[in-house]
Design goal:
Blueprint lengths: L1 E4 L9 H15 L5 E5 L14 E4 L4 H15 L4 E4 L11 E4 L4 H4 L6 H16 L3 E4 L2 H11 L6 E3 L20 E5 L8 H11 L6 E5 L20 E5 L3 H10 L2 E4 L8 H8 L4 E4 L2 H6 L5 E3 L4 H12 L2 H4 L3 H10 L2 H9 L3
Parallel strand pairs: 1-2, 1-4, 2-3, 4-5, 5-6, 6-7, 8-9, 8-11, 9-10, 11-12, 12-13
Helix pairs in contact: 1-13, 6-10
């Protein structure tokens, strides 16, 4: 029997949640039989549009549910396999496969609240020790797990993210002016401050607006001023639906992703699908994933980002990827391929 930690179904879909959702959809399409385990408190309020087999168990929510309710359920099932595509799952249950998307809290603790940092610093090495297999989403993240958690590279399987978006269309977003787009949660490692600093100067010399999509989480230490920018030129959308996000990708002139640290980075891949040129930070994982599909800049240099944005805006047609280039990268990183790789481990 295969069980999957379904806590992600109770949360807004972000990067790690999208990984879990898309992998579950692909496993289901491949005929893999599994049951998603969800906290009992969501039994009467949770939507299930994909018709997953659900079992509502245990009391509590969040980490307490994972470490108590989910753990107790799995121990009663004895040797059943538990897959956890987000979070650590019950740390002392051994017959599990867990996914570590990144180790940013080890890399730079100041990006996170103390509670979040100490929780994951203490529990992650235990969870990584007491499991059957580790999954991660890039060769870079694999190297970080080897570095910080001292796990054998052969114990870690790289399962890439993919693009979830398709050709469906909606026209709810009104954008009369041209704009630069950024998509990510609003936390310090996403480096929005650099983008705002660069845009403060860019906005004085160009008519492109700036649209930032994403919500702030309480466990992140995020504090940024909008500097000396006309507030009508910068739009913080907060969390928006996938349909609205797709329309922003379609209408954006340039996608900018200034992150200091990522495990993979799904938004640039989504932008590529919609033929939006991408300007991303020069960090190892982006060189691994996007290689020649992007323009790179120094994430520690406002001047470099500013110059690269001007460079891109002056050459939008020339820097756009060809259909063949887009198809090549989208075929390389697909949920179907990743799901098949996981099936080999079951």
């Amino acid at each position: 029997m295969i069980y999957i930690n379904g806590r992600f179904l109770t949360q807004s879909i972000t990067g790690v949640g999208r990984f879990a959702l898309e992998i579950c959809k692909c496993l289901q399409m491949q005929g893999v039989e599994f049951t998603l385990l969800v906290p009992k408190k969501y039994k009467d309020i949770l939507d299930n549009p994909y018709e997953f087999k659900l079992n509502y168990i245990g009391w509590g929510d969040s980490h307490i549910w994972e470490q108590v309710g989910l753990c107790w359920f799995m121990y009663r099932k004895r040797d059943a396999l538990l897959l956890s595509f987000t979070g650590l799952g019950p740390i002392f249950y051994r017959n599990k496969i867990i996914t570590i998307h990144d180790l940013s809290f080890f890399h730079e603790p100041k990006w996170f609240s103390k509670g979040y940092y100490y929780y994951y610093k203490f529990l992650t090495p235990i969870a990584a020790k007491y499991c059957r297999q580790l999954l991660t989403v890039s060769e870079f993240s694999k190297s970080e797990i080897v570095k910080y958690l001292k796990r054998d590279p052969d114990f870690i399987t790289v399962v890439y993210n993919g693009n979830s978006f398709g050709a469906d269309r909606v026209d709810k977003i009104e954008c009369e002016r041209r704009f630069i787009l950024g998509v990510s949660s609003l936390d310090p490692r996403k480096n929005h401050k650099l983008l705002l600093e660069a845009y403060a100067e860019i906005s004085k010399k160009t008519d492109f607006d700036l649209v930032l999509v994403g919500k702030s989480e309480k466990h992140f230490n995020f504090d940024v001023d909008v500097l000396d920018i006309d507030p009508s030129r910068v739009r913080f959308t907060g969390y928006i639906s996938d349909l609205e996000l797709k329309e922003l990708y379609r209408k954006a002139s340039l996608f900018v992703y200034p992150s200091f640290y990522e495990g993979f980075g799904i938004p640039p891949l989504e932008a590529i699908y919609y033929n939006c040129p991408i300007l991303i930070s020069d960090i190892p994982v982006f060189r691994e994933i996007f290689c020649e599909a992007a323009i790179f800049f120094d994430p520690n240099s406002t001047d470099d980002l500013k110059e690269k944005i001007f460079y891109c805006l002056d050459r939008l047609d020339k820097i756009a990827l060809s259909k063949e280039q887009r198809n090549l990268i989208l075929e390389k990183y697909s949920w179907e391929k990743s799901a098949l790789k996981i099936i080999e481990l079951l």
